[in-house]
Amino acid sequence: MLTLPPTVTPRAWDRLSEIGATAQGKALRVAVEGGGCSGFQYEIALDEPKEDDLVLEGSGEKVVVDSVSLPFLANAVIDFSDELIGARFVIENPNATSSCGCGTSFSI
């Protein structure tokens, strides 16, 4: 299987534009950290890009992934969900073998 960097959906780019992340000098940081009920968890925040980050750009906005998190997010899709239960950025990760009910924790 070909390993590709994560992709960002048009919905996610639109939400970042609504937030005005670039105007604040920020990007959406998507990282993977140890922890959570399944072993790893996603950390999603507005942050300043760093030198070793992979920078994805679209619609005048940026999404950044650090070099340690990148292998865990290969071929993943970063999306935005706006439902009755809440609005949030979500990760569709083909590398995850299982995940918890809330969708923020996973195992590989």
Automatic annotation (TrEMBL):
Coiled coil: none
GO biological process, any: iron-sulfur cluster assembly
Domain named Core: residues: 7-103
One function term, GO molecular function aspect: iron ion binding
Pfam families reported in the protein's UniProt record: Fe-S_biosyn
Matches recorded under SUPFAM superfamilies: HesB-like domain
Stored InterPro entries: ATAP, ATAP_core_dom, FeS_cluster_insertion_CS, HesB-like_dom_sf
NCBIfam families: iron-sulfur cluster assembly accessory protein
PANTHER family listed in its UniProt record: IRON-SULFUR CLUSTER ASSEMBLY 2 HOMOLOG, MITOCHONDRIAL
Record protein name field: Probable iron binding protein from the HesB_IscA_SufA family
Species of provenance: Limimaricola cinnabarinus LL-001
